[in-house]
Amino acid sequence: MPRFQFRTDPDGLKLEVFVGVSRPFAAALMWAGVAVPPAWVATAEVDTGATITCVSAAVIAGLGLSVPVGRARNQTASAAVAVRLFEVGIGFPAGVTGGPPVVWRDELEVAEFATPLPGVDVLIGLDLLLSCRLTLDGPAGTFALEV
54 CB contacts (<8 Å, ≥6 apart)? Predict the structure, then answer.
């Protein structure tokens, strides 16, 4: 399992990820002769309280995704909210890996969060975290993901 190490941030466990269209959607676009939009490099935060990974409306729109694959109700700290679900690919950009980008999941259903979070475009939820090993070393100020 590839291991990626990061510094902790006073505001949380933040890291850079890339978010792109899912592999099946990219294949459909190419088959139709339509250019595949480039992946976005985004700031993510590990959120062990989130059951599903969430992506900002800005990133979803930037990928040209407008038709959701579904809808759901998410429970936030303050209320239950209706959300749109989209399928994306997510991984680690070259700046994180020190080499080529590494795909974590090429087909992942995510919830869109419409209310912007300052400095965060992706919340990494338990749907991804339960497929990897998360190690936090508070005294050293680091955390690692083995995916």
Answer: 47, 74, 83, 110, 111, 112, 113, 122, 123, 125
The matching CATH number, chosen from 2.40.50.140, 1.20.120.1200, 4.10.910.10, 2.40.70.10, for 3-146 is: 2.40.70.10
Q: Is the full-model pTM beyond 0.90?
A: yes
What's the pLDDT at 25? 94
pLDDT at 94: 77
Instruction: Please give the mean pLDDT across all residues of the chain.
Output: 92
64: region left, alpha or beta (phi > 0 left; psi from -120 to 50 alpha) = left
